[in-house]
Amino acid sequence: MSPKKPLFISTAIPYVNAKPHLGHALEFVETDIIARYNRLLGKEVFFLSGTDDNASKNVEIAEAAGVPIKEFVSTQAENFKKLLQDLGCENNDFIQTGIEERHIKGAQKLWNLCKKGDIELRKYKGLYCVGCEEFKTDKDIVNNECPLHPGRILQEIEEENYFFKLKNYEKELLDLIESNKLKIVPETRRNEILSFIKGGLNDLSISRSKERVKNWGIPVPNDDTQMMYVWFDALSNYINALGFAENSEKFQKFWENGESIHVVGKDISRFHAVYWPAMLMSAGIKTPDIILVHGFITSGGQKMSKSIGNVIDPYDLINEYGAEAARYILARHVSVFEDSDLTKESIKEYYNAGLANGLGNLVSRIMKMATVFGIKLDKYTKLNVAGPDFSFDESMNSFEINSVMNFIWTRIAYLDGYIQVEEPFKKIKIKPEEAKNNLIFILNELRDIAENLLPFLPNTAKNIIYLIESNKSPETPLFPRKD
User: Among all residues, which ones are annotated catalytic?
Assistant: First the structure.
């Protein structure tokens, strides 16, 4: 990542047909960590989240609930806003694609800017997956089903739609990704996208008849019979939130002249790494710089499902353990790049081992010694003795969040071991000066650990720094043990 350029970073915008799930919490926390880290480096950061309101599945659920679609999406969006807030995420903006004028105008502007000849009207017949909001070709279908939405019947649809000539951008997309001008992380996802493009691109249907989408969505410019395909309008949210419609200073600063990162799930990587850059190239707009693709969270080796009974609700996690502990679980014990498994049992184990018996216990021991013996850290010096071969910044810039968290907990274990060996609590009476030096070193290291933790567990880190600077012991355990 560039050390000087302003940074735009976004989560994907989830459909609002259901409540937020643990995967959304994961994406929110990962994005917030990267945003906080870059702010600590002194960068100007714009962190965006939002909701995708114009999907057919949203219309289906709203109709089934007997609620007007506009009211439904607005109410549902509040659930996602609340989860961001409750997880302690510091997003700068939140965009709702179904109701905001800035998005409607921006999506229509993008359509109009696409190169003449890249969009044409034609008849089409195909199988449509409402779950993916995408037409499926034979190579996408397994046992007559979409593999991402098994059990859901594919709809056979025939109608006249506008098509985007995606095939025109095969070579440009390959050049963009192979040169790393568009960097896709991790390498496995990059290779998947390159393989997909090399397999040949099909032109993309980018509109739906008004009747089929129940007159919900963004109208196609100069054609009152068609609405934009949800993925054409949805992807433009990133620039629309920056004021693309009016070509604002914010858009110029953070998009055209800044650096951009999209944090997305593996199921929508194709939309962000193929369709979105092609649309931007057609419109003469800068393409994104980095697409960070994360995996899924399973439970007990299976996809989370209400019927199986293995669903872990993000609010259950927050209510039981607290927001900071939820951030810890998602940052340390869920891989950034691959699928990870969590169960209610493993979460409790991770919490007790890493937080209650680990960080929380260490802070209590150190601050009790410091206050009892009257030792205060007057000057903080960055020592970092526990991992001289580890580059914090290099790992963060590579999005290796798990590795950084493991490094911090290595430092915690090191400091715990140092106390056991040096025993300043025993030494204070017989070698007071040496014990004092031991405690100054310990306080300094704890302060450094807290500095490391600021992007990950911001409230906990600030609390530890406050305790050290005030020479106070925590009144209650930072992380009470769960039995």
Answer: 21, 24, 129, 132, 146, 149, 303, 306
